[in-house]
Write a structure and sequence with these properties.
By secondary structure, the chain is mainly α. The chain has one domain: ABC transporter involved in vitamin B12 uptake, BtuC. 75% of the residues lie in helices and 3% in strands. Helix 3 (61-87) crosses helix 8 and helix 6 (163-173) crosses helix 8 (185-210). It is globular, with a radius of gyration of 19 Å. It starts with a helix and ends with a helix.
Length: 291
């Protein structure tokens, strides 16, 4: 039997990155009605931008990471500010397709500007480790595990205990009536777009360090895994989304411990998403028959 101890921390760290993106995805969907599919591309662009600043421009590491994270927030905000209103009353599938189109635009730019050379993004926190018995964890992995949990808790408190959070929940229920009540819809939505973009930027930096900086992998693996977790939470429950994301990350990592299944580990998010969609489809058909 393989020793899964070494893979538990890696799986939890991966799950944490998926959870962080899942939280941003759920909050954005509940506020704007947009199922965002370009956040993997935003995360990849942020990681490559940080690499560019550090290795080509000679910037300070922390300043580069901060600039990259802000780029994720600004880029997502610009999309929501200019394309959000024209798509506000369109079908959800149209909104999702538009976001996927933007992801392909970003992917094309990244593949044009950055060639396929091998790159690594070394976060300073990776060099700091805690070792006790079989447990070996660096600070990057610790941040990836704990930060999403803290973000989910803070988000729940924010949505339920602040005026902006209340406005965001009201938008999820009825956009038109919320606007009639005097809520500044554009500003509230802008806050949701920017906040989710910040989370996507952080996720991209962490994933680039934990896995690789391969452009296509960062662009598509993160969205599928986070989307699968969000679907399990029915794009409503942050707690369920976070738990599901950690489970997906653990499964993906543990498959890597088994020689016969290691080659399939990267398909875990895709299989999870398919199973979730099949389950909800079967469940919906069953409920219709009962009714």
């Amino acid at each position: 039997m393989p020793d899964f101890h070494l893979y538990l921390v890696i799986g939890l760290a991966l799950g944490g990155v998926y959870a962080m993106s899942g939280v941003g995805l759920v909050v954005l969907y509940r506020t704007t009605g947009v199922l965002n599919l370009f956040y993997g591309a935003v995360g990849a662009l942020c990681a490559l931008f940080a690499w560019e600043l550090i290795n080509e421009k000679g910037w300070n590491n922390w300043l580069s990471f901060l600039a990259a994270i802000l780029l994720g927030g600004v880029l997502t905000l610009l999309y929501g500010w200019f394309l959000g209103p024209p798509l506000a009353n369109r079908d959800p599938l149209v909104k999702a397709s538009a976001s996927l189109g933007f992801a392909l635009i970003l992917l094309g730019f990244m593949q044009w500007y950055w060639t396929a050379d091998v790159r690594t993004l070394a976060l300073p926190t990776t060099r700091m480790q805690y070792v006790k018995g079989w447990l070996r964890i660096n600070w990057t992995q610790g941040i990836a595990i704990l930060f999403p949990i803290a973000i989910a808790i803070i988000t729940v408190v924010f949505l339920n205990g602040t005026k902006v959070g209340t406005a965001m929940r009201a938008l999820a229920d009825d956009r038109d009536n919320t606007a009639l009540l005097g809520v500044p819809v554009r500003k509230v939505e802008a806050f949701a777009w920017f906040g989710s973009g910040i989370l996507f930027g952080v996720s991209g930096l962490l994933l680039a360090n934990l896995v690789s900086m391969e452009i296509a992998a960062l662009t598509f693996t993160l969205p599928v895994a986070a989307l699968a977790a969000a679907l399990i939470g029915r794009v409503e429950s942050l707690a369920t989304t976070v738990i599901a994301a950690f489970v997906i990350g653990l499964l993906q990592s543990c498959l890597g411990a088994m020689n016969s299944l290691a080659q399939y580990r990267n398909t875990t998010p895709f299989v999870s998403a398919i199973l979730v969609l099949v389950w909800f489809g079967w469940r919906g058909q069953t409920q219709k028959r009962i009714a």
